[in-house]
Amino acid sequence: MTMSLGQLAREVGASLHGDGDVTITGCAPIRTAGPNEVTFLANRKYARYLPDTRAAGVLVDPRMPCPDHVTRLVCDDPYFAFRNALVALYGYRTHPPPMDAEPDAAGRRLSPRASVHETATIGDGTAVHPHATIEAGVVIGARCVLYPGVFVGPDARLGDDCVLFPNVTVYDRCTLGDRVILHASTVIGQDGFGYATHGGRHEKIPQTGTVEIGSDVELGAGCAIERAAIGRTSIGDGTKFADLISIGHGTTIGEHCLFVSLVGVSGSVDIGRYVVLGGQVGVSGHLRIGDGVQAMGKTAIAQDVPAGKKVGGVPAVDSDIAKRNAMASQDLYGLVKRVRSLERQLAAMREQAASPDSSTGRSDRG
Which of 17, 198, 249, 256 is catalytic? Predict the structure, then answer.
């Protein structure tokens, strides 16, 4: 879609300072944007690119100084405004219909090569692609999309407007809210890692619980959410995961959390709302992480974390301390060498002090 810069400014709620008649065809990073594209500046370290940008307009906050020749779209939150510009110019991903299915009277497109149990209920406008499998008792809401290779187990439930990309698996009795997006190869509701060791053997504990995922949740590719041994594993409304994240059985995750790739959370962890876990964060089992906690990448959380805390390091400590520890450990070998040198000097001084020839106050009477 194309529009004038003035139209785009109105669309994203920005105040335009410059020529609003320029035609805008897209969005681009500040270093590569062309004369028909808009860009944004939310991180001040990129301000050095402002004088040379070729962008038709730059979304900036009111406090950002700009060269006079740069056309500015001034707004309080440039990053969010840029998101809105992307929506206005590109829209969201569209989903192709199954290549072998025409819509029925309810607007559903059900591929004849999909396996759909006769007791399953499928809502109006839903598309089921070839080689998807929908088992007995499944309820799928309206306007969902199930790509090839999707498996939905017995008595599972999906809300409206869900999208399950290729090879997603939803095990039996698991529940998804509305507008849930599961990217390729994500698994919901596999057995939790539960074993009782007895007589030298690891005996499997039946995993009798379920997984419940709220509305507006998006999980990246290759995530794995274990079902609970008893009760449920749950993910709250609005929470977003990147790729390759593992959540242990019986864990509860609150609303609007953000987990970056390779996070691993053990079982029976209680995670609050608006928690942010950086890449490769690991969380031990049976812990409580309060609302608004932020953990730096590679943090190892081995004890409860109070609400609002920022942590980092292995094991987790206050983030400022973690940064100092990291700086101090950048040359451990050099530090060891200096300590050993000082130890040798100190030993020599002690040896010299203990020598009879070095006793103080000695008089030579010849």
Answer: 249
**3-class state of residue 169 by DSSP:** strand
Asked whether the beta carbons of 355 and 347 are under 8 A apart, the reply is: no
Q: Is 311 exposed, middle or buried (0-12, 13-18, 19+ CB in 10 A)?
A: buried
Q: How many residues does the chain have?
A: 366
The closest alpha carbon to 171, from 228, 250, 245, 110, belongs to 228
Domains of the chain are 3-90 (3.40.1390.10), 109-322 (2.160.10.10)
> Quick check: is 249 catalytic?
yes
Tokens 């593992």, residue located = 246
With the C-alpha atoms ordered 189, 193, 198, 199, is the resulting torsion angle positive or negative?
positive
Residue appearing with tokens 């993910």: 235
Element housing 16 (H / E): strand 15-17
CB 274 within 8 A of CB 257: yes
Q: Which residues pair with 24 in a beta bridge?
A: 3
Residue 345 CA to residue 121 CA, distance in Å, equals 82
pTM of the model: 0.90
Residues 220, 205: Cα–Cα separation, whole Å: 29
DSSP state of 216: T
CA distance 216 to 197: 39
- The secondary structure element, H or E, covering residue 283 is strand 282-283
Tens-digit pLDDT profile for residues 327-355: 988 888 999 999 999 999 999 999 999 88
Convert the pLDDT of each residue in 38-79 to its tens digit: 999 999 899 999 999 999 999 999 999 999 999 999 999 999
The first and second tokens of residue 225, run together, are 């959410």
d(C-alpha 328, C-alpha 310), whole Å: 20
For residue range 142-184, list pLDDT tens digits in order.
999 999 999 999 999 999 999 999 999 999 999 999 999 999 9
Question: What's the rounded Cα separation, in Å, for the pair 246 and 232?
Answer: 15
